[in-house]
Design a protein that fits this description.
Layout: E1 2-7, H1 11-25, E2 29-34, H2 37-46, E3 51-55, H3 63-73, E4 78-83, H4 88-96, E5 101-104, H5 109-157, H6 162-171, E6 178-187, E7 190-191, E8 194-195, H7 198-219, E9 223-228, E10 231-238, H8 245-265, E11 269-274, E12 278-279, H9 284-296, E13 302-304, H10 320-331, H11 335-350, H12 357-377, H13 391-396, H14 401-441, H15 448-454, H16 459-470, H17 474-492, H18 497-503, H19 509-520, H20 524-531
Parallel strand pairs: 1-2, 1-3, 3-4, 4-5, 11-13
Antiparallel strand pairs: 6-10, 6-11, 6-12, 7-8, 9-10
Helix pairs in contact: 1-5, 2-3, 5-6, 7-8, 10-11, 10-12, 11-14, 12-14, 17-18, 17-20
Length: about 525
């Protein structure tokens, strides 16, 4: 159905247009008419048209003025101007307003119908686009929560999260560089600051999750994570690297209001812990940990980590970001970046009032041992308790600040180097073990899965590592070993081709012959003949 509005101050013209359109389109069209500029605007408000045939010269508002007024509340109308005045200025203005056609009276039936058909096509196209957009939006309403959950899951659980960071931010259209975490905890009732029936509440959460998401995103422009026990994690992108006191109070207030609305709409009790602002990426996990500490150390409904008594407080200004950056540079094996952080740390320590050499030695030792421990737990270096027995003596033996800084720099370089070499040695060791297994078992029907199980790593990672270390894939290497054996047997034995095929790990002589010719350029028989 198309709603068509005809506007002309001549009654004969109106009746003529109405008759032409009705006789050809019948019930497909609902036609309304108007004789003045004001009347056409009012009619367009009451019965929003799809198509409007507009005369330029009408009493009161002109056709051009009427089009402008209608477009203020309806931008989708397809306009066709019909006029007895063939003036360039009118045509130019009509084009600027997006008018589809400019027809000069008298207009014959064929032109009216052709124009009407063209306008209807345009209306159909607009409707289809609107329908497609709605379908896409409906699909996104299903997909976006899954992407948000995946993003938050990766932040909290994946060590190699940085690999996917940019992809997630592009998919979710996150423009900000920073953010903070809110952990919402729920249960049946509050007892001594603890929410009861966590297991039952997590089951119930599946029913109220969509309501929770709607309310949370009404208070914060946030990403909502999956249900994790009796908790749901929110990630709130933030414009600045830190929040000042007023901003922190505003965040807490808004969170309190959110909790109040959650409890009014959902049959559960809620508490929320809020972490500090961090750079979006792997450091966001720290904001989550802070939010959890805030929940654990307080019985309040809403608590910010900064409001937890003595929680991660430092007497003065402590360079948390610098320490995090130092750890990250070391874990990334970025020697230059890590050494630059060491220089910055030393400058900070030297500028602290009342700091002794012993204080600095302890801090340096803490930082070095901290990254070593982190590297060990991530499987990047080997470790034994006796490895560090000389650290205290070495630091105490430093004659001054420069020697202490040199020890710090050298130890940082050594850790980065050990991480790199440990991974390289481990990779080489795994591949050498795999090669040895292939050489001992190439006569059998061995597969990549079997060899990867032998070296105790996943098939996918083994395949990637094997190619990285050898320059070729597993099948190519196995084929090379088998054909090398076949060549030796063809040279030095009286075995038949069929027997050599079996001795080389192939069960089908025809397949063996094809593979041999592919790599050697001749069949096994031709290869043997050449040697005689």
């Amino acid at each position: 159905m198309y709603r068509i509005l005809l506007a002309d101050d001549e009654g004969i013209m109106l009746e003529s247009l109405k008759s032409i359109i009705s006789s050809n389109y019948g019930n497909e069209c609902e036609i309304h008419t108007a004789k003045t500029g004001r009347a056409v605007v009012e009619e367009a408000e009451k019965y929003p048209p799809d198509i409007c045939f507009m005369d330029i010269q009408m009493p009161g508002l002109s056709g051009i003025q009427a089009i402008r007024e209608i477009q203020k509340f309806n931008r989708s109308v397809v306009f066709v101007i019909i006029t007895a005045y063939d003036k360039f200025n009118y045509a130019k203005e009509a084009v600027n307003l997006g008018v589809m056609e400019f027809l000069t009276k008298p207009v014959n039936k064929k032109v009216v119908l052709e124009t009407c058909a063209k306008a209807m096509e345009k209306v159909d196209s607009t409707r289809q686009k609107r329908s497609d957009d709605l379908r896409i939006r409906e699909k996104l309403e299903t997909v976006v929560p899954m992407i948000e959950s995946g993003y938050i899951n990766n932040i909290l659980l994946q060590d190699d999260f940085q690999t996917y960071q940019d992809n997630y931010r592009e998919l979710l259209d996150i423009q900000q560089e920073y953010g903070y975490m809110i952990v919402a905890e729920f249960g049946d009732s509050m007892e001594n600051g603890v929410l009861t029936n966590a297991v039952g509440a997590s089951v119930k959460a599946n029913k109220f999750y969509s309501t929770f998401r709607e309310i949370a995103q009404g208070f914060f422009e946030c990403l909502v994570g999956p249900i994790m026990g009796n908790r749901i994690v929110l990630l709130v992108p933030y414009r600045n690297a830190t929040e000042d006191y007023e901003e922190r109070v505003e965040i807490v207030t808004r969170t309190r209001n959110m909790v109040h609305k959650l409890e009014s709409r959902i049959d559960s009790k809620f508490r929320c812990g809020i972490g500090r602002v961090k750079e979006l990426g792997s450091t966001m996990k720290e904001s989550f940990k802070e939010a959890m500490i805030a929940l654990r150390e307080s019985t309040s409904h809403v608590i910010h980590i900064e409001d937890v008594p003595a929680a991660q407080k430092y007497d003065g200004e402590y360079p948390r970001d610098l320490e995090r950056r130092y750890e990250k540079r070391v874990m990334d094996k970025d020697v230059a970046g890590a050494l630059n952080c060491v220089e910055e740390f030393f400058r900070w320590m030297e500028n602290q009032p009342g700091v002794s050499t012993e204080d600095m030695q302890i801090k340096v030792l803490e930082l070095v041992m901290g990254v070593e421990k982190k590297a060990f737990f991530e499987g990047a270096v080997k470790y034994a308790i006796g490895y560090r027995k000389n650290y205290i003596h070495e630091l105490q033996a430093c004659a001054g600040m420069e020697e202490m800084k040199k020890w710090f720099l050298d130890k940082t370089s050594e850790i980065c180097s050990n991480m790199e070499s440990a991974r390289e040695k481990e990779a080489v060791s795994i591949i050498e073990k795999a090669k040895s297994y292939i050489r001992d078992n190439y006569k059998k029907d061995i597969s990549l899965d079997e060899v990867s199980r032998e070296v105790d790593i996943s098939p996918y990672y083994f395949s990637k590592l094997f190619k990285q270390e050898t320059g070729g894939n597993f099948i190519e290497y196995l084929t090379g070993v088998r054909l090398r054996n076949a060549r030796e047997l063809l040279k030095d034995s009286e075995l038949s081709i069929k027997e050599i095929c079996a001795e080389s790990g192939y069960s089908d002589p025809n397949y063996f012959s094809r593979i041999f010719k592919k790599y050697e350029g001749v069949t096994p028989s031709e290869f043997r003949e050449r040697l005689r």
